[in-house]
UniProtKB/TrEMBL annotation:
Pfam families: FAD_binding_3, Phe_hydrox_dim. Its cofactor is FAD. The lineage of its organism: Eukaryota, Fungi, Fungi incertae sedis, Mucoromycota, Mortierellomycotina. It comes from Entomortierella parvispora. Residues 585-677 form the Phenol hydroxylase-like C-terminal dimerisation domain. Belongs to the PheA/TfdB FAD monooxygenase family. This is Phenol 2-monooxygenase (NADPH). Keywords: FAD, Flavoprotein, Oxidoreductase.
């Protein structure tokens, strides 16, 4: 039963206050977009499905200005320790990488990830509207206009959690209603709805969006608690049992250990009959002891969580419904816990989507730009599902050949790993690339650039020197005492960054620009003028509105949440370089320009020519030294020559690149922005 329908309006309604929904709310709020974030639970679940933040996720959180609290609380882990029966067999540094500043996995329970993101959102003045759950939604179309109408409800007494709900982790079927429960309802009108309501997504079910894939017959058990064991569980520990089964242990921050056990397979009927309450600590202890062997001590001291995990490998047929409703996180893709990719993929979904919605609501881009969300994120989800499936299949291999190969890799793998490039490790999520579309455009001069430098690739990391006047020589040269990472310059959210890879142009250029192999050259004076003119033109034509203007245009109904929670989090401790550009908490400008020179000046004449660029503020065309041309190399730009302009999208991927940094190249970048923005 339901009563008291109330109507309200918000630009963006987000259903589900897990990490994916929270991150979307943070990003949109920073982009001056009012949001309403609803969550059916009155309190954050104390149970944590996800445990790790990978390198790429930490990069985007840093660009968004939210990483510092996580670095304070999280534990840096780089290695897997492999045990065969009762003996340690190998150590694999599988979470290590040489490509990112974040060359580790950051272990932090989802409970704390949720708490830290909630604290960030609270700091921005937004509360979670707890106790409300989404019951139905539809896209209303009247002529050329459309919007979303969503019915939400709240239990009049007690909570929205129903006694009929399944407690088996990983199921994707909806739960039955509970007879006699009474609710009050509300109809919310929004421009957009972001569904971050998990694997059982009500939004996905109500819109009849197919969820194809497979349900595995593996019987997986998850335990959290304190244990005593001869095996030290102070790092990620994989134990391959002589009985043909395996387990994985993870250290949690409060001294507990997460243990995931392979307990064979079950028929669909047996799976349906599973009840977590029937699973006892004695049964679990017996499973573990059978894997590690009878001579190894293992004794649980308590039990915080013990449940079954039903593995589904599925993704939604569509992530975008009529350009108004978007599925993100587990609502759009689910898979096994192998590799720890799930929550990370959801956070990256939010990062891809939020700036695009903001551009449309600010009137800065056509609605068609939202088509790229599904175009870009669906292939990523498909790849993640394949990766986790492969990891799980190999880990649980039962046939003789694959078990023999696994034992062989355990024996020789640690000796081979140093010879493999760490940039290709898929677990770090640094290899994700978006293919050509309305945002990722190839210029005719850059059609045949090697794949690793092509549009759609992640903007790679490099270390730069701030150019300052040397007290001895009087020259403007790179300072080894003042360095900054490239990714500390391409901050967000919502900012396009133009990287000017000037090669040695500013050192060797003649007073009057000419051409090199048909490409316009330039000099410091002309480059500084092009930068100033284009920044002025772009910022005049395209800039973010204030939050108040968006509220007025969308007729937002201010409605303070009736149930909300404050989250206690540690103070952020900055680890950024002194010359890093801080992430904005209130969007204003959309464009920044950064100049990278591959060679230092050697004469007073050269020094004088770059003085204007050196005086520029960060983001306004300031020049940095790319010592030894490492950044140029990582972006496929020659250290000597005409240089290249590279446009970095607001989510840290390459959107466009054009050979040369002369006036004609700037005109090409201008045409790119005009083709993309409104």
């Amino acid at each position: 039963m339901s009563s008291s329908t109330i109507n309200s309006t918000t630009p963006v309604l987000i259903s589900g206050a897990g990490p994916t929904g929270l991150f979307a709310a943070i990003l949109l709020t920073k982009l001056n977009i009012p949001v309403r974030l609803i969550e059916r639970h009155l309190e954050v679940s104390p149970l944590s499905k996800a445990l790790v933040l990978h390198a790429r996720t930490m990069e985007i959180m840093a660009m968004s200005g939210v990483i510092e609290r996580f670095l304070v609380e999280g534990k840096h882990l780089r290695e897997f320790h492999i045990w065969q029966g009762g003996k340690q067999a190998a150590i694999f540094p599988v979470l290590n990488n040489k490509e990112s500043h974040y060359n580790f996995g950051l272990f932090l329970e989802q409970l704390r990830t949720t708490a830290l993101l909630t604290a960030e959102l609270n700091d921005l003045g937004v509360q979670i509207d707890r106790g409300w759950e989404l019951m139905d939604t539809k896209v209303v179309e009247e002529g050329k206009k459309s919007w979303v109408e969503t019915t939400i409800r709240r239990a009049i007494q007690g909570t929205n959690v129903r006694s009929t709900e399944s407690k088996v982790l990983g199921v994707v079927e909806q739960d039955a209603e509970e007879a006699g429960k009474q609710y009050e309802t509300e109809v919310v009108r929004s421009e957009y709805l972001i569904a971050t309501d998990g694997g059982k997504s009500v939004v996905r079910h109500k819109l009849n969006i197919a969820f194809p894939g497979r349900t595995l017959d593996n019987n997986i058990i998850i335990y959290d608690g304190h244990v005593e064991s001869d095996i030290p569980f102070d790092c990620i520990t994989v134990v391959n049992g002589d009985n043909g089964k395996m387990m994985v242990a993870f250290p949690l921050n409060d001294g507990q250990t997460r243990i995931i056990v392979d307990n064979g397979t079950l028929t669909p009927e047996e799976h349906m009959a599973l009840k977590p309450e029937d699973l006892t600590l004695e049964m679990f202890t017996g499973m573990v002891q059978a894997i590690i062997g009878p001579t190894i001590k293992f004794q649980p001291k308590d039990c915080f969580w013990l449940t079954y995990y039903r593995v589904n490998e599925r993704h939604a047929e569509h992530f975008d419904y009529k350009g108004r409703v978007f599925l993100a996180g587990d609502a759009s893709h689910v898979h096994s816990p192998a590799g720890g990719q799930g929550m990370n993929t959801g956070l990256q979904d939010s990062y891809n989507l939020s700036w695009k919605i903001a551009l449309v609501l600010h009137g800065l881009a056509p609605k068609s730009i939202l088509n790229t969300f599904e175009q870009e994120r669906k292939p990523v989800a498909e790849g993640i599902i394949k990766l986790s499936a492969t990891l799980l299949d190999n880990a649980l291999a039962k046939d003789f050949l694959r078990r023999t190969l696994k034992r062989l890799m355990i024996a020789v793998g640690p000796y081979l790993l140093p010879y493999f490039p760490t940039t290709t490790n898929p677990l770090t999520m640094l290899m994700i690339r978006y293919h050509d579309n309305a945002i990722n455009q190839r210029h005719k001069s850059q059609m045949n650039v090697d794949e690793e430098f092509q549009v759609g690739q992640r903007a790679r990391e490099a270390y730069l020197e701030v150019i300052k006047k040397n007290t001895e020589s009087g020259l403007l040269v790179g300072s080894t005492d003042d360095t900054v990472r490239l990714q500390e310059l391409i901050v967000g959210p919502g900012i396009f960054h133009v990287m000017v890879f000037s090669s040695d142009m500013l050192v060797t250029a003649k007073p009057v620009p000419a051409t090199i192999k048909g490409v316009d050259t330039t000099n410091s004076e002309f480059l500084a003028e092009d930068i100033a003119q284009k920044l002025l033109a772009w910022r005049t034509k395209w800039s973010y509105k204030s939050r108040e203007e968006i509220i007025e245009e969308t007729q937002t109904t201010p409605r303070p949440p009736t149930h909300h929670s404050q989250s206690v989090a540690p103070e952020a401790v900055s680890t950024a370089s002194p010359s890093a550009i801080p992430s904005s908490t209130k969007a204003s400008q959309m464009f920044m320009v950064h100049v990278l020179a591959s060679e230092d000046v050697t004469t007073k004449e050269q020094s004088a020519k770059i003085e204007r660029l050196a005086r520029n503020q960060a983001g306004e065309g300031k020049i940095y030294l790319d010592q030894d041309g490492i950044a140029h190399q990582k972006y496929g730009v020659a250290k000597h020559g005409a240089g290249t302009l590279v446009v970095i999208r607001p989510d840290g991927h390459i959107g466009y690149r054009v050979l040369g940094i002369g006036h004609s190249a700037w005109e090409d970048v201008d045409r790119y922005f005009r083709s993309l923005l409104a």
